[in-house]
TrEMBL record:
Protein's recorded name: Major facilitator superfamily MFS_1
InterPro entries: MFS, MFS_dom, MFS_trans_sf
Mode of membrane association: Multi-pass membrane protein
Pfam family, one: MFS_1
Organism: Beutenbergia cavernae (strain ATCC BAA-8 / DSM 12333 / CCUG 43141 / JCM 11478 / NBRC 16432 / NCIMB 13614 / HKI 0122)
């Protein structure tokens, strides 16, 4: 925090996450109320994840220009996209929400790639764990209030009020980013980037070029991918399993945020003790066990029982505890071993590796939720994530720098 650019970037991170956390759950609730369909509501999360397919292009853009300038433009464009959803008037306009959500998600990949490069330019290797842990803490801490703020504002004033709040947050973020002053690493010269496909694929080749980075990418891709089923199963879990309305989704995510807040606060200290790879394994194990406990709750506790919601909340808080450990572990390792000129492309490649499978699983879940018991989907998620935790074992010492293809 002694670095002024980092302090300003952190403040911008707070404002953008405030708007982001308030919006995406409200959109799912909005679609559910417009259509009455669990599958249609789950498709909001699919639309949010589909831009992962364009993540390599976002990373290429981030590595070709000033990351600070790109962040400003992306946040302003996101505000405009959010406001286009004022055109929604009924079920026939749900496609507007899907399109806007897709563009909104694409902007998120652009900003993630650009921010990775800025952080690498601002901080030393020793400062990266603390920075990634702090950002995860901010992100998860805001989930304690933003989902309730978003769904509460939705209930009191309608979805348009949530849209205005979110757009305002992104405009404020852009204004804060304009005040950052730092010397950025210049992009690779054109003659060093090679052909177009060689340049775009450099992030993937870097992830595959070092054994630990390759292991973490594959393991988390599988674990995070299977959680796409949860994006659809959460609605029948709340309504049928626990016996509450879909508006309780805001409460559920807030409770998960409590555990995630603890995870974010402890991640930097733990990663210094056990290393990034073991922290990822510990986080995945925690997530899998939390989901397994959630499955037991919906199997053993009757819907509407007073103990149902508290026990399900406890399960979600356990899941939330492990998420920052996974994210901080893999993000810190990737930034630490990746050259500054490749930060945007490796960030984008990793995001695609994680979110692409998750989006596919969300689409599968939306297609089968009407015929497959949601409890089976939850059980599959728990088993796969625990298996991924077991597979996340040491292969090489942490810290080896991959060869840049």
């Amino acid at each position: 925090m002694r670095h002024a650019p980092f302090r300003r970037l952190s403040l911008a991170w707070i404002t953008t996450n405030l708007g982001d956390s308030a919006l995406y759950l409200a959109l799912a609730v909005w679609v559910k109320e417009l259509t009455g369909s669990d599958g249609a509501a789950g498709l909001v999360f699919a639309a949010l994840g589909l831009p992962a397919l364009l993540a390599p292009l976002a990373g290429q853009i981030a590595d070709r220009m000033s990351r600070r300038r790109l962040l400003v433009l992306a946040n302003l464009a996101t505000a405009v996209v959010v406001l286009t959803m004022f055109a929604v008037r009924g079920p026939g306009d749900v496609w507007v929400i899907y399109v806007a959500t897709f563009l909104y998600g694409l902007a998120g990949y652009v900003t993630a790639a650009a921010q990775s490069g800025l952080l690498r330019d601002m901080l030393s290797d020793d400062e990266l764990p603390g920075a990634t842990g702090m950002y995860s803490t901010i992100d998860q801490g805001l989930r304690l209030v933003s989902p309730l703020l978003g769904t509460g504002l939705y209930a009191l004033a309608g979805p348009q009020a949530v849209l205005v709040l979110t757009a305002a947050c992104f405009v404020v973020t852009a204004m804060l980013l304009l005040t950052i002053r730092l010397t950025e690493t210049p992009p690779q010269p054109a003659h060093e980037r090679g052909g177009y496909w060689h340049e775009v694929s450099a992030g993937f080749r870097t992830l595959a070029g070092e054994s630990t980075l390759r292991l973490l990418t594959v393991v988390i891709a599988v674990a995070f991918g299977i959680t796409g089923l949860l994006n659809v199963a959460i609605f029948p879990m709340l309504e049928q399993g626990i016996g509450v309305g879909v508006q309780a989704l805001g409460i559920a995510v807030t409770v998960q945020g409590l555990g995630a807040l603890v995870g974010g606060l402890t991640s930097a200290a733990i990663v210094r003790r056990i290393g990034e790879r073991r922290l990822v394994g510990l986080g995945l194990l925690d997530m899998g066990l939390g989901l397994a406990f959630g499955v037991l709750v919906v199997l053993l506790v009757p819907a509407g029982h007073p103990a149902g919601l508290p026990l399900a909340s406890l399960a979600l808080s356990v899941v939330g505890l492990g998420i920052p450990w996974v994210v901080v572990g893999v993000s810190t390792y990737r930034m630490r071993v990746t050259p500054a000129t490749l930060q945007g492309r490796t960030s984008a490649a990793m995001n695609l590796s994680f979110n692409g499978p998750q989006t596919l699983a969300t689409l599968v879940g939306a297609a089968v939720i009407a015929v497959v018991d949601y409890r089976l989907l939850l059980g599959v998620c728990a088993v796969v994530i625990v298996a991924c935790a077991v597979a996340c074992r040491p292969l090489t010492p942490d810290g080896a720098r991959p060869a840049v293809p």
